[in-house]
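TA notes, week 10

Several of you asked for a full example with nothing omitted. So below is the full record: structure tokens for the whole chain, then the designed sequence directly under it. When grading your own attempts, check the secondary structure regions first.
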């Protein structure tokens, strides 16, 4: 099911935590992509698309990365937003506009937990069309990936669902 869903979107988005944890599939390190990365290898073999790397660094360090342009990809630079209490974070509205400017009209967000929790925050929920939960050989919750967005209430004090889930019965 996951592979079918991936085929229906212009792009797939994961967080750096997922990229590092998923080393066997992505062969990615937080310091940067390497020449023998599975992403680049698949592209060179004609089986994948050139990767785009979203970063807040204006100029990613050349000694710690392979320029994605070498393989037809690119870096997309996104400014970091600062909250009222001084915390730095990614502004999903800015990121999604940047992706749209680069021709992506739909993005599948595969996680991990920090990315999903952030995107399900009240200020970004209007960007979400659908939530589909697929269970992989990974534990969710305590001791695993924690996905637990903050609960919100309407003016009458009634809880507002974070998202509507599609639950397949087969």
């Amino acid at each position: 099911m996951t592979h079918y869903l991936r085929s229906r979107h212009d792009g797939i988005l994961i967080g750096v935590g997922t990229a590092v944890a998923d080393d066997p599939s992505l062969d990615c390190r937080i310091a940067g992509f390497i020449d023998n990365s599975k992403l680049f290898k698949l592209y060179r073999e004609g089986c994948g698309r050139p990767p785009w790397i979203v970063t807040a660094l204006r100029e990613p360090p050349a000694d710690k990365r392979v320029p994605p342009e070498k393989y037809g990809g690119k870096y997309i630079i996104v400014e970091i937003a600062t909250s009222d209490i001084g915390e730095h974070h990614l502004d999903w509205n800015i990121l999604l506009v940047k992706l749209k400017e680069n021709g992506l009209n739909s993005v599948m967000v595969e996680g991990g937990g920090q990315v999903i929790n952030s995107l399900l925050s009240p200020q970004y929920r209007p960007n979400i069309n659908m939530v589909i939960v697929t269970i992989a050989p990974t534990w969710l919750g305590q001791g695993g990936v924690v996905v637990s967005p903050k609960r919100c209430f309407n003016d009458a004090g009634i809880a507002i669902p974070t998202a509507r889930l599609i639950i397949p019965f087969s």
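Residues 1-114 form a domain with the Dihydrofolate Reductase, subunit A fold (CATH 3.40.430.10). Use that as a sanity check on your answer.
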